[in-house]
Amino acid sequence: REVWVIVTAAGSGSRLGAEVPKALVPLGGHPALTRVLINLSQVEDVTGVIVTHPESQRELFAQAVPAQLPYAIHLVPGGVSRQASVYAALELLSEISPQSLVLVHDAARALTPPAVFERVIEGMLEGAVALVPALPVKDTIKQIRPEAAAEDFPLVLGSPNRDALRAAQTPQGFDFERLWAVHQKARDLSADEAKAAPDDAALMEAFDYPVRIVTGDELALKITTMVDLKLAEILAEEQPI
Ligand code: C5P
Questions:
Q1: Which range marks the domain in which residue 177 is found?
Q2: How far is the CA of 9 from the centre of ligand 1 (A)?
């Protein structure tokens, strides 16, 4: 079965305050996206990769694609949201490989080791419907009302049992046909309902597909804040490519 990886890289990275789009932030001398594509070249069984880029920056993103990758590569303009970007990539995949397994991965998780991709692919080939790499949570999570988030001292509603929580990462693995179907259905949802689906696995959950967890990796951290970026820079220095 063909295995395709969608790398979402169309975000602006405004929370980082960097001057380049987040996916092109240099980490140990190489843009984040380049690191993802090189790590993917060490993953067995990858047929092709689709990168979503900010619409106006195709050239810049093309320059971050290393020459001579062992898989096919396509660049697709992303959309206004991550979900819209994934949709655009799935639309291309529906034309070129509708029978495939698909992994959806955030370029912002630039240091994700090849072994994580391999674990997800292996689980999918063994018959999983949807697989999410995840780790136990370190912090105790406090639940508040979303409407209270802007208050100075929002009221705590409760503290879910930590043993019952996992922090989700990417790459998330899916059967293409099912993921494409739920993305098409989700397009018809109102903006409010769509908010309830923060990642692709959540969309599958919303349509009652069984989503399972596979062990993630601390190196798959999502580079979101300045502190994440500093940490990723230090870690990348230790991983020369
Ligand atoms: O903004 P956030 O950190 O949630 O983005 C997660 C991933 O989705 C990033 O890799 C980002 O580049 C990507 N993204 C995208 N299209 C958007 C917004 C985000 O591909 N419109």
A1: 3-237
A2: 6
Mutational pocket test of ligand 1: of 15, 33, 85, the residue with most ligand atoms within 8 Å of the beta carbon: 85
**155 Cα–ligand 1 center, Å:** 30
Using the atom order of ligand 1, give the atom closest to the CA of residue 23.
12
How many distinct structural domains can be found in the chain? 1
Report the complex ipTM.
0.91
Full-prediction pTM beyond 0.90?
yes
Residue 73: predicted pLDDT: 98
Pocket residues for ligand 1 (CB within 6 Å)?
8-11, 22-23, 52, 78-82, 85, 106-108, 224
Tell me the H-state helices in the chain: 32-40, 58-63, 82-96, 114-125, 176-186, 191-195, 200-206, 226-237
Regions of the chain where pLDDT drops below 50: none
CATH number of the domain where residue 201 is located: 3.90.550.10
Q: How far apart are CA 105 and CA 115, in angstroms?
A: 14
Contact 182, 101 (CB under 8 A): no
| Gap between the Cα atoms of 25 and 107, Å rounded | 10
Residue with the nearest Cα to atom 17 of ligand 1? Answer: 82
